[in-house]
Design a protein that fits this description.
542 residues, alpha+beta, 8-stranded antiparallel β-sheet, 14 helices, binds guanosine-5',3'-tetraphosphate, protein biosynthesis, cytoplasm, T_Tr_GTP-bd_dom, Peptide chain release factor 3
Length: 542
């Protein structure tokens, strides 16, 4: 369906909708999942540039050595040039409100990165054309898969030599079982990128860089005959590749995309803004708008019931002078108005929302109203925990807790001053409740030396820093060599009692028994030795 046609259909469907449902229908909330260096920051800038959310390209970068940084606002972030916080970029495009949630990567990859994916309706899987699927992308994709989040694939850096497009599609289908349905197809091999065939429009869009690549790409629309005359061999090759694709039934289908079994694929070069407008159009025309979210009992709360939302991230300020804490809430239903007093479902207590912000990096803008799909940052939200539900008015609602994700790093933490043990215990409990780290215990190690488990090692630094600054407990941390956790049971614990290179601990949060292994080989040899052992994968997103 063409963009304008889709918009008309949407407008028609909007007739008779309530104002809140209409606002929800014009929102798209998504995250980019990628491996470091695939071009996520560049693409984020390019997307925002189209909507003029950020005046000058370069402003989104939060990396060391780059000038303007709006996404690193904590001292620790600035020192290292990394961004700890999940930030939200909101902009309008074609009368649609786009909420782009950041998924921290690099050294700051953490459980928060996964949790962001519980708050989106769609994901853009960004691949480097020369590298294909890379480890971090795969991990994030698994969370999307477990949650059935629809995925649009954007193959980036086509301006450089890369893997053949058909081989890239084959890799995606083979390794993650997602059927590719390209919406655009590159004309010209990697490195000689002339433009893309828009399969639905049946035309070629030729790209040209605008001055210095800092503006939207210049586009020229060509009929097939014009494209054939201009690009000869490259055009013939592209159309032949598409014919091959046609044989495998790789046509876009909205139902299977929304069902997360197929992925629309697009080609581009974020650095030159090539293919970026097409991606925005696909998000607007095809990506899902916020839908009613099921509560703990599986009942869906209609979008136009009073405000409700859940906390998917809590960010504590590392700066001693500003001990505030921001809870990021994804709005699920109703209209949020700053200042409204809402109910905190976990405690039944009222929660005042005087300080509601839209947070993008260091920038905080007061938010006066928000609708389903939006993210609000509540400042001074010390009473709130990860996964908590907030709601206004009847009926009360409680959304399911957020899942715990499979940790890959483990460390024992101890208070260096044993007289501070009480405070230490309180701190550990608090960090566990906030989801900063997962806390694992065992009789063997005792209460004084719990094991902290994390998706990324940065979580340990945040935890020890906060124990020191907020609870006044300096700690010593000893990293453990385990890299793999599997769920087991009481029998499994018994069987593994004497196994070497394995340890069983209990996760405080949900009493799950986790067997920790040094690596895949250890896991394999242990399961060979104990064929009846229960070792279930802790699926990301399980
Ligand atoms: P990340 O956030 O995913 O880690 O990636 P980022 O956007 O920082 O991009 C990583 C590198 O890839 C950057 O180069 C960036 O310019 C480059 N890049 C991004 N998109 C494209 C593209 O479409 N084509 C090409 N050729 N390169 C692209 P860098 O040398 O690390 O940094 P910089 O000095 O260029 O900013």
């Amino acid at each position: 369906m063409q963009g304008s046609e889709a918009a008309v259909t949407r407008d028609r469907a909007a007739e008779g909708r309530s104002p809140i449902a209409t606002q929800a229908a014009r929102r798209r909330t998504f995250a980019v999942i990628s491996h470091p260096d695939a071009g996520k920051s560049t693409l984020t800038e390019a997307l925002a540039l189209h909507a003029r959310a950020i005046g000058e390209a370069g402003a989104v970068h939060g990396k060391a050595g780059r000038s303007a940084t709006v996404s690193d606002w904590m001292a620790m972030e600035r020192e290292r040039g990394i961004s700890i916080s999940s930030t939200v970029l909101q902009f309008e495009y074609r009368d649609t409100v786009i909420n782009l949630l950041d998924t921290p990567g690099h050294a700051d990859f953490s459980e928060d990165t996964y949790r962001v994916l519980t708050a989106v309706d769609c994901a853009v899987m960004l691949l480097d054309a020369a590298k294909g699927l890379e480890p971090q992308t795969l991990k994030l994709f698994e969370v999307c898969r477990a949650r059935r989040v629809p995925v649009v694939t954007f193959i980036n850096k086509w301006d450089r030599p890369g893997i053949e497009p058909l081989a890239l599609l084959d890799e995606i289908e083979r390794r993650i079982g997602l059927q590719c349905t390209p919406l655009t197809w590159p004309v010209g091999p990697g490195g000689e990128f002339h433009g893309v065939i828009d399969r639905q429009a049946g035309e070629m869009v030729r790209f040209e860089r605008s001055g210095g690549g800092s503006g939207a790409a210049i586009e020229e629309h060509l009929t097939p005959d014009e494209a054939a005359a201009r690009f000869g061999g490259d055009w013939v090759r592209a159309t032949e590749e598409l014919e091959l694709l046609g044989l495998t039934g790789a046509d876009y289908d909205r139902d299977t995309f929304l069902g997360a079994t197929t992925t629309p694929v697009m080609f581009g070069a974020a650095v030159a803004n090539f293919g970026v407008r097409q991606l925005l159009d696909v998000l607007v025309d095809h990506a899902p708008a916020p839908a009613p979210r099921p509560d703990t009992e599986g009942r869906e709360r209609a979008l136009d019931t009073p405000f409700s939302g859940f906390v998917f991230k809590i960010q504590a300020n590392m700066n001693r002078a500003h001990r505030d804490q921001i809870a990021f809430v994804r709005v699920c239903s109703g209209r949020f108005e700053r200042g409204m007093v809402v109910n905190h479902a976990a405690t039944g207590k009222p929660f005042a929302t005087k300080y509601a912000h839209q947070v993008f990096g260091r920038e905080r803008e007061t938010v006066d109203e928000a609708f389903p799909g939006d993210v609000i940052g509540l400042v001074n939200a010390h009473a709130l925990g990860i996964g908590d539900t907030l709601h206004a008015g009847p009926p009360p609602v409680s959304y399911p807790p957020l899942p715990s994700f499979a940790p890959e790093h483990f460390a024992v933490v101890r208070a260096t001053d044993s007289s501070k043990f009480k405070r230490f215990r309180r701190g550990i409990e608090q960090l566990d409740a906030e989801g900063v780290v997962q806390v694992l215990r065992s009789n063997r190690r005792g209460d004084q030396a719990p094991v902290l488990a994390a998706v990324g090692p940065m979580q340990f630094e945040v935890a020890t820093h906060r124990l020191d600054v907020e609870f006044g407990v300096p700690t010593a941390i000893e990293h453990l060599p385990y890299r793999l956790a599997r769920r087991t049971d009481a029998e499994g614990e018994q069987m593994l009692r004497t196994a070497v290179g394995v340890e069983v601990l209990v996760r405080a949060r949900d009493d799950t028994r986790l067997a920790l292994f040094l690596d895949q080989w250890r896991l394999r040899s242990v399961t060979n030795d104990h064929p009846k052992l229960l070792v279930a994968p802790l699926l990301a997103g399980e």
